[in-house]
Amino acid sequence: MNDIYFDHAATTPMLKEVIKAMEPFYNQSFANPASSHLSGQKAAAALEDARELVAELVGAQKAEEIVFTAGGTEADNLAIKGVAMALSKKGKHIITSKIEHHAVLKSCEYLEKHLGFDISYLNVDQNGLVDIEELKNEIREDTILISIMLANNEIGTIQPIKELAAVASQNDILFHTDAVQAAGQLKIEIDDLGVDLLSLSAHKFNGPKGIGALFVRRGVELIPQISGGSQERKRRAGTANLAAAVGMGKAAEIAVKNLEKKRKKLISLRDYFIIQLQDSFNNLKINGPESDSRLPANINVSFRELDAESILFNLSLSNIAAATGSACASGSLSVSHVLKAINLEDEYLKGAIRFSLGKGNTREEIDFVIDKLKEIINRLNSLK
Prior knowledge:
Pfam families: Aminotran_5 (PF00266). With about 375 residues, this protein is α/β, with parallel strands linked by helices. About 45% of the residues lie in helices and about 15% in strands. The chain has helices spanning about 15-20, 25, 40-60, 70-85, 100-115, 130-140, 160-170, 190-195, 230-235, 240-280, 310-315, 335-340, 345-350, 365-380, and strands at about 5, 65-70, 95, 120, 145, 175-180, 195-200, 210-215, 285, 300-305, 320, 350-355.
């Protein structure tokens, strides 16, 4: 069997339509969108067309509320640091959760260490869900921002963002959500969610790497985190990555068009995979919530008293790609902060593997992986 790629949460393959849309902007319509000549104006028009498509992906009413960035990490940094610096005179308290992506956690850590902010980290239950009552209890007079991710990158937990954002709104607090994993898998409507800022990354929904976006609701104050020119309506300096923005726009357009069909396929494959795993192994635990509250593409499992790195190494020998959790944390020998936060039992902590599904995956591939896993797990168990 050909290579099997079950690591779409880390990155996805670019669609042919996306590559085709990008090509002219490398050597034909390559002008700087900030230039005033005709070629620059054409480039600027293409950039704004891409912005419109990204706005449609999240249901934003105005394309100008979309700020292009170099990816989801920059979008998170711009949202958290940008708002914090803009509103520091109003207050220096931020609320987030213990299972956020490191782009959020490290941004909060930076504000705490260098600018004197106070950060409250919400607990989560065994399924990774934030408790609304705890959020209400953590709110203070000086709270200026709440940041809770829409869907978790490791265990797939979908948070009740609409309810959480309503609490923020009732207390006149801005709300940011990291929707990097959710885009392309879940229908996102900004006004329904009620959020003020939302982060995206193109390469998570079959677009190019190196391009992302931040939705910034009109009227939200934000201090730019990159100094220079007045690009992106003075919110993000630097010459626009035009080809990548066009690619993101095309990927967003396709994601909107195919969302329901893709979602149903992924849910069917995910549930089939989980059933096969449960039927095949008695030393296995499914990490995260039930199907209704889990991302369609996410399966996170732990094998009791086994080492995930050993399992992944053996899977890779059969050309099977999976992950231990967040790609941004790969290479780190520390136990996942997400699994710690859900209080996963010690015997399961080091044996956690994330399989994430996407375009082109099939039941036949799942069956092949299950067979290989049986061989690997049996061999590793025999060595204990």
